[in-house]
Structure formats: structure tokens, C-alpha cells
Amino acid sequence: MTYRTKLLALLTCLVVVSNALLAGAHYVQCKSALETEIHRKSRSIAATAAALLDPEVIKNIRNRDDENTLAYATLQSELRKVRAANRRNDTWLQRIFVLMPAQQDPRVLEYVVDAEERFEYVHHPGDIYLRNDQPVGIGLEGIEKLADQLKGFQAGYRSSFAPIRDTAGRLVAIVGVTTVPTMYSTMYGLRSSIWGACAITLALTILFAVFLLRAVNRPLETLRRLIDSVGSGDFTVATSTSPSMTGEFARVANSIRAMAAGLRERDTIKRAFSGYISRQVLDAIIAKGELPALKGERRRVTVLFSDIRGFTTMAESMSPEDVVRLLSEFFDRMVEVILRHQGTIDKFLGDGMMVIFGAPLDDPYQEEHAVTAACEMQRELRALCAKWQAEGRATLKMGVGINSGAAIVGNIGSAEHMEYTAIGDAVNLAARLESATKELGLEIVVSEQTYSAVRPMFHWKSAGEITLRGRSEPVRAYTVEV
What we know:
By secondary structure, this protein is an alpha+beta fold.
């Protein structure tokens, strides 16, 4: 999904959610106001009816036989008049009735008069007033107390009650009124208006978002092309700013161009010096942003020396082109193995090379990496020799010497020319061990220091104690099975 689509979707969702919340809150508020108004009207109707009825007459109606009396007929007629007068468009009075405490239990209410005509719905004197199919057990006083908050009682806001008191002020009966909710047509119209406004707002938002995204997309597309150019290695991007690039976009574009200029300078320096110093040192110089100082540090390293046996004699019978081709193919394989095992190529020594493990970056597994690299170098050489032999070309043998110990590692030389290398007795011993491979007839000779660090990891054979040139004491050495 593109940035433009995401932003459009985000704005649309934001408008929909915010409008829905506002519309819902407005709808609930309006509905509550209408319910309150309907309840107020129904209470006013109940109070008016209560004022019209004679409490003394009501006291004399207690059972179904009283329905045939003139008093009952008079009360029922009054209630029906009130009902008829309040069946209007704004309020439609559905039922009106009078309740008194039951003779058996004053907490339970029973009907006195009901204005309903339909026989299946009418209630007679003595019938128990039920709520949710259960008698109401709070008495007249309980209903009067609930009259102000009657939304949770009986039929909610559609029912209201008013007290009927005698001349002494005693609560005799209560008038109940139930209205039909006529607000739904109003709510339907309000709902249509609310959602219509939401739809218009959403449409305007989408139009604005599309316009805004088009205005944003042009500079973003220009920035994308600049970044693609830098990513593809083209650091020569134009320095002029596009007319569509203003404000923050112009500053971002200028930052990208400045970055491209810096990368171009860095790439130029790297290509210029890559032929003179090692890749690891060059990367360290670029990362630090300053020239290396002529200093070194003492650290533990593992040094590997390799050399092709009898190469000088063999090269005398080959053309220079064949010698270069053979060495190039040989070093391609060997360097690949060394770099794979985190070795640093210190220098090439004609047909041999010096490799450092554990510098310039620390390597806690330097001995293991060095021995593994030596074994793989011998296996690679065997594969190369098989290939050369099949082509009718000369084959080679190689000796490898490995030693671990403390050495001075760093940039050695002068201000005009320096190189990253390691110096010390540990380096000299590794070189002497490589020379000893010729006399011992072994492919790999490892010092006791390296052997002790990785003894369980390889299959070893003792090479005995050997005397090396320049050392007064014999050195215990080992060889590893390739």
C-alpha cells in the first residue's frame, strides 16, 4: 500500500470515527431530551386526571360488582375524557387507570377503574396490578416516591403516576398513565439529518485529502528519484531544487544532495587508496573520519603464514603469463577462505602470505578460525590441483605455520607511507613454523600455544620438539589432520 493510499485511508477512518462518535452522542442527547419531555407531559396528564377524581367515590369501589354502580361509570367516563383529550400528534395517551392498595395486602396494588374498552386488555376492580408478570410490592407510597425517577419503573419514560389524596391529605389512590411513544418519527428524521451531514463531511474530507495528497506526492516522487539515484551509486545528482520542492521537502532534498556529495567523496577516496592499504584498515579510517596515527597496541593474535613449496624452481619453467594466472587463481581461493573465517590479510609475500586473526577487531575464537582456515586452504588447494592436473598444468603444494601470542598490532611506518601489521616474537615463530613444514614434510604445523586453545576441536598428531632458526630452545609443535 502506497503512502498516498495509507494517508487517504487514515483520514477517511478518522473522519468516519469522529463523525460517528459525535453523531451518536448527539442522537443519544436528543433522544434523552425527547424522553424527558414525553415523561413530563405524561406526568402532567396524570396530575390533571388525579385532580378531577373524587377520592371519596374511589374509596367505595372495591370489587367487580361495583362496576355496575353510577360512581364507577362516572369515574370511568372522566378517565376516558382525559384520554380522549390527550390523544394528539405530540402525545398519544394509550391507557389511564386508578390503583389502590389491595385489601389482603396493602403493599400490593389492585385496579379500581380502567378506561380501557377492549375486553382482552381491560382490568376490573380487584385485579392485581402486575409488573413483569409479578405483583408490585412497594405500595402507593413507594410508587409516589418513584414518580420523579420513573424511567426505570414499569414501562420507562412512557408511564407516569400522580397521587389522589382526600381532604385530610391521606394518600387514597394513584392515577397511572401510559403513553404511546410518538417520538420515533422525530428520531428517524433526526437520524437522517445526522447521517446526511456525516456523508457530506466525509465527501468533503476525501476531496480535500485527494487534493492534499496530490500536492504532497509531487515532492515525494522527486525525493524518491533522488534516493534511488543515490542507492544505485549515482552520486552526481543535480544540485538545483525542483519548483515543487518547498519548505520541509526542499530541506530534505538538500540533505539528500549533501549526503550524496559526501558519499561521492568517500567513494573516491576509498577507490583511490584501496590499492595501497588493506580493506579492513581503509574501512576503519573511513568510519573514524580521520587519518590513522603512527602507533600500535599490544594484544593477543593468531598469525598464519603460508608459502608454496618449490614455486621458484617451478616458475622458471613457466611463462610469466602462466605464473601470474596460476597465482591469481590460487590466491582467489585462499583469500576467500581467509575472509570467510574473519582473517585479516596482512601482506602477500611473493608466493606466500601473512594473515592475522584477532586484529584489527577482537576475535575470542581466533585460534579456531585460524586452524579451520588452514585446513580449508589445504582442501581448496587439492581441488585446484585436481583441476590443473586435468588441464595438463602444473600442481602445487603449500606449507602453513600457525602461532598464537602477544604482538604489537597497529599502523607501522612513516607519515608518507604506513601499513597495518603485527610485529613481535609470536609473528616470527609463526614464520619459522611455516619454514619447518618443508623439513618435516607436513602441510600444517601449529605451535603449542595455538594447540592448547583448540585441542578438543580437531584431530592432532604430535610433530615433536623441533629446533627453529634463531631460537635457542626447541619448540613443541603439532600437525592437524585436514
